[in-house]
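Bench notes, afternoon.
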Amino acid sequence: MAVNRWLARQIQGGINTADEQLWNEVAASFTRHFTDSLAKENAQSVLQVGVKMKGEDIDAYIVETEELIQLAEYQFDVPQTIEVFTDGLPMGLYQKILELDRPATYEQWKQVAINHQQDYIHMKARLQAHCGGITTSRPRGWMPQRMLADPNAMDTSAGRTRGHVTGSEEINPATMPHGGYNPQGGYM
């Protein structure tokens, strides 16, 4: 309605209806209002579905969450907004914050989450340095978990051993005589 009134005033003021600047302003005004409306609705929708922290990057998570909260025009210190923020944290981080700090406001939650995540990354790096720099998990499956010290040594790791009793081919319950096995003298 406001754009329509503005357009009518411009034309009554003597601006040619074919003036490109006039129509560019109408299109820009429509885009501005329409985009703002969609941005708010989209942000609310994304927040309702939930935003999760990806990997270990707490900063990217906070930036994304805060942008959505601002676009959705939510207030930061209401319980629903704090819940949106905490729902996106990894469970271990959330649990540690709740057990140790019990923050009440959004800013407290944010700061404590940053602090605990920094501590976690520091300890992880320290542990990796202490353990010889192993940073990736070992492959599982048929590959040996470690190299044998002696090339002639037998691999007795859990995935590689199978019990085999000498002569076990002869002790087949299906072919055993009816009397069964006598440990002192063989078959009865």
